[in-house]
Amino acid sequence: MNNPIAKLVFVYNANSGKKNALLDSLHKVFSPATYDCNLCDITFGVVRENSTWKRFRKNSQYPMEFLHRDEFQKTYASKFGYKFEFPIVLAEGEKGLEVLISTQELNGLQTSEALIRLIEERTA
Questions:
Q1: Which residue among 36, 52, 121, 123 is the one 20 to 30 A from 102 at the CA level?
Q2: Long-range CB contact pairs, 101-104, < 8 A, 24+
Q3: Which value, to the nearest 10 degrees, does the dihedral of the CA atoms of residues 111, 102, 5, 95 take?
Q4: Assigned fold of 5-123
């Protein structure tokens, strides 16, 4: 990226709220093949954050913002007209939001380690 990164924005393909979190957890357990948020899947287990991911997140040089789809749309899309598929990882810089890791790329990842490697490669 030529645009200096001020912050990484992670957007889950799920809506916010306790009811949605419970439904998402149940979906992961009972029908993992049809669960629509690979970002959720590789950064969180059924009830808690993946330890490898948590360590990376806490030690990252970049500030990180984590939003659900509805929170992102309320915070960013209405102001700037951004249209993205979710899940997605965005880099916020002087030029606004740019795609760091696309939905298709995220959906192809299997582990938090693979996500971390990709983030490190793209932000180096």
A1: 52
A2: 103/13
A3: -170
A4: Glutaredoxin (3.40.30)
Which two structure tokens, joined as six digits, stand for 55?
Answer: 């360590």
CA 34/CA 7 separation, integer angstroms: 31
Encoding tokens for residue 115? 């996500």
What is the chain's length? Answer: 124
Q: Is 96 helix (H, G, I), strand (E, B) or coil?
A: strand
Strands (E), the chain: 5-12, 64-68, 88-93, 96-101
Sign, CA dihedral 18-24-27-29, equals negative
What pLDDT, in 10s, does the model give residues 18-50?
655 545 544 444 445 544 667 877 887 656 788
Cα dist from 111 to 55, 65, 67, 79, 95, whole Å: 14, 20, 20, 33, 30
